[in-house]
Each structure stands twice: as C-alpha cells, then as structure tokens.
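Sequence design from tokenized structure. All designs in this work follow the same two-part layout: the structure record, then the generated sequence. An example of the structure record is given first.
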C-alpha cells in the first residue's frame, strides 16, 4: 500500500500547470529587479517566516532576521540572472532547479559568479508562494569559466 501511495504521489507531482510556471517565473523576475534596485527587503519578503537558506559551503541560515542579514550582505551585487532548468511539484509545493548568475563589483572590479540553485516554493495561507528552502552550491562558473554543475551530472 505504501509503494502505491508513493508512486501515485510522485506521478501526481511531476507536472505543474502553466499558471504555476508563470507565477514562479514572475517571482524570479521580481528577484532580478529587486537586486538591480537594491530592494533587499522585497526579496526577504518572499521567504516564509521559518525558511532556510543553505549558502555555498553548507552554511545554514534560518529565520527572517538571519535571511535579511544574508541578503543585505550582498549589497555589492548589481544584477542577478535567474535561469529555471526544471520546475515540478503539485501546485502547493513547487521545486525549482536552476542557476543564478550574480554580478557584483568589489574594489572596482566586476565579478560574475554562477551557482546551481534549488528553491522550494510553498503556498502560504494567503495563497502566495513563499520560499521555504533556498540552497546554492559553490560557484559552477566564475567570470564565465565553467566548472562542474548538477546539470552536467544529469547527462
């Protein structure tokens, strides 16, 4: 009985609707715009109160205050480009596999870092998607020079 339930769950969760896809794509575009405008509070508002960020190197950041401190520490970022590689879930909980390319200026030098990201979006009681989990690995490319990524591992 358990395997039938797990199989049914996996089958019912593999596809998401076009509306959900459009909503998650819009949320990603909002993050891109918020970085460009240095509007970190709008990014923090996208996280659930009990959300977790797992930053490169495995550092775990939990709770709204710590998440706010994390995002505000990225003040040198000038742009973020989000690439969605895969979306799945059941509409209430959606996972996103992708890449984030962040450009920042430090000491007058522009640096671009691309990382694989996994984001779990969860609908709250107001039927809004909030980030429950955001996990980034170490950079898969720095200034356009590639290293290994989970996308390469899938092939």
């Amino acid at each position: 009985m358990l395997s039938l339930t797990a199989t049914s769950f996996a089958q019912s969760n593999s596809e998401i609707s076009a509306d959900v896809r459009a909503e998650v794509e819009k949320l990603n575009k909002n993050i891109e715009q918020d970085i460009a405008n240095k509007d970190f509070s709008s990014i923090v508002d996208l996280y659930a109160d009990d959300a977790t960020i797992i930053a490169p190197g495995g550092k775990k950041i939990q709770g709204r205050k710590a998440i706010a401190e994390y995002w505000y520490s990225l003040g040198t970022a000038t742009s973020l480009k989000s690439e969605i590689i895969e979306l799945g879930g059941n509409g209430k909980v959606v996972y996103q596999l992708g890449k984030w390319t962040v450009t920042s200026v430090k000491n007058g030098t522009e640096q671009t870092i691309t990382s694989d990201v996994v984001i779990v979006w969860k609908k709250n009681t107001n039927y809004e998607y909030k980030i429950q989990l955001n996990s980034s690995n170490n950079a898969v490319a720095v200034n356009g020079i590639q290293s290994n990524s989970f996308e390469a591992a899938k092939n």
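Confidence is low (pLDDT under 50) at residues 1-13, 148-155. We note this feature because it recurs in several other targets discussed in the main text.
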